[in-house]
Design brief:
Elements (H helix, E strand, L loop, with lengths): L1 E8 L5 H15 L3 E8 L8 H12 L2 H14 L3 E4 L9 H8 L4 E5 L12 E2 L2 E2 L9 H5 L7 H16 L2 H4 L2 E4 L2 H9 L7 E3 L17 E5 L8 H9 L5 E5 L5 H10 L5 E3 L5 H9 L4 E3 L9 H8 L4 E4 L4 H4 L6 E4 L4 H12 L2 H17 L3 H15 L13
Length: about 400
């Protein structure tokens, strides 16, 4: 199949970028012909004042994208477009252009744009869905995008103008990573025939780390919506075990200052970890914690922990209850509740045999439900359905 894969890379490499690259490789490994149309937000760093002023208009509708996508379609003739992220450089013009050229479009729901200008359904420290029906003035009022009136206005205008121009209705299919996201879209009036579930996946070629480590781990962005303050305050009371925090982000300096001021010795900030270092950190841990206080869609770190044979303690919010099987691959706690997190972590620390059992189950789960082969079959079924070759939807969290 000839597949046009579209993705706008972020300045800080993240989960969406990793998925886009991995899925291109997956599709090619199975013999598909993939053409990648990509932009990278690092381009903005080289912009002069004129370019930056132009970006305001290009974010709403990029003529460059319209021109380049049209050329690709006419010369390369893709059978389907598979879209990850489009903001801000590619812009929603990609939807209108592909629609006019009659190329079926499949949008992966990594976040909740265009129903929320920042994509998170989260602002000012709490879950928020005020903009989902199209009134984006809430996002401007609350400075939901990077705490800025200017950028919040820009993204609100981008969502509003293109939504009025039928952007959402022109997308042929939405690929949700869990039933949680599926239900959100159905609740917003997206037809059931357009909504599919296909989770993320992970390679399982490395041996799991089934030994008992001497620490608990957090891996991810250091930002408020990730529940870092809840995590640190919980382990401030769990001083008998080490917590290793791997990652970077806007809370890094504040967290370090707090740990130093409170003389907390059992919490270690170890910086960003990738590749072998990331695997070693996972494989040698007891388990990991995902304390998110926003609607996580499908954090890859959960599957990576499973592949390493480690259970996950996660907050009972968003997609996590669909990915973490209670008392099988991990346990859940009330989001933002330090007391409950302390209770659940203490429970696992006192039951090493339970941790081992959950870790083995977690590994078996990724080998079956979240393997590359299983998810490739699901994805190709969605492509076939969109191209008119049958209905291939699923209500299950796994493949």
């Amino acid at each position: 199949m000839r597949i046009l894969l579209i993705h706008n890379f972020y300045q800080g490499f993240g989960g969406e970028d990793a998925v886009a690259l991995a899925e291109r490789q997956l599709l090619e490994n199975y013999g598909n012909d993939v053409f990648s149309y990509t932009r990278h937000n690092n381009e903005i760093k080289r912009y002069d004042l004129r370019d930056k002023l132009g970006l305001i208009f290009h974010t709403i509708y990029s003529r460059r994208t319209e021109r380049e996508i049209s050329n690709i379609v006419w010369t390369w003739k893709p059978e389907v477009a598979y879209i990850h992220n489009i903001y801000p450089l590619i812009s929603p013009s990609v939807y209108h252009t592909l629609w006019s050229l009659k190329i079926p479009m499949i949008q992966v729901v990594h976040n909740f744009r265009p129903f929320c200008p920042n994509g998170w359904f989260f602002t000012r420290g709490r879950v928020c869905e005020r903009c989902k029906w199209g009134n984006y003035f809430h996002a401007i009022r609350h400075r939901c995008y990077r705490n800025s009136y200017l950028t919040s206005t820009l993204y609100s205008a981008t969502m509003g103008i293109n939504r009025l121009a039928d952007m959402v209705r022109r997308i042929d299919a939405f690929v949700c990573l869990t039933p949680f996201a599926r239900d959100k879209l159905l609740g917003l009036g997206i037809p059931h025939s357009k909504v599919f579930v296909k989770p993320n996946w992970v390679e399982t070629t490395m041996d799991p780390g089934l030994s008992r480590g001497n620490y608990v781990a957090y891996l991810g962005r250091l930002s408020s919506e990730k529940g870092l303050w809840t995590l640190v305050r919980a382990f401030e009371r769990l001083d008998s075990v080490i917590l290793k925090i791997a990652g970077t982000g806007p809370l890094e300096a504040g967290l370090k200052a707090y740990l130093q001021r409170k003389a907390i010795k059992n919490v270690m900030m170890v910086g960003f970890k990738g590749g072998e270092e990331k695997w070693d950190l996972l494989a040698n841990s007891r388990f990991i914690v995902v304390p998110s206080e926003w609607y996580e869609n499908f954090p890859l770190v959960v599957l990576e922990a499973y592949a390493a044979g480690k259970p996950v303690v996660g907050s009972k919010l968003g997609s996590l209850p669909y990915i973490i099987e209670e008392n099988k691959s991990g346990i859940l706690f009330e989001p933002g509740c330090v007391d409950d997190l302390v209770k659940k972590v203490s429970y696992l620390l006192g039951r090493p045999d339970e941790v081992d059992r959950m870790g083995r189950y977690a590994r078996s789960l990724v080998e079956s439900a979240y393997s590359p082969a299983a998810c490739y079959q699901r994805l190709m079924g969605i492509f076939s359905s969109v191209r008119g070759n049958g209905d291939y939807r699923s209500t299950e969290p796994g493949c």
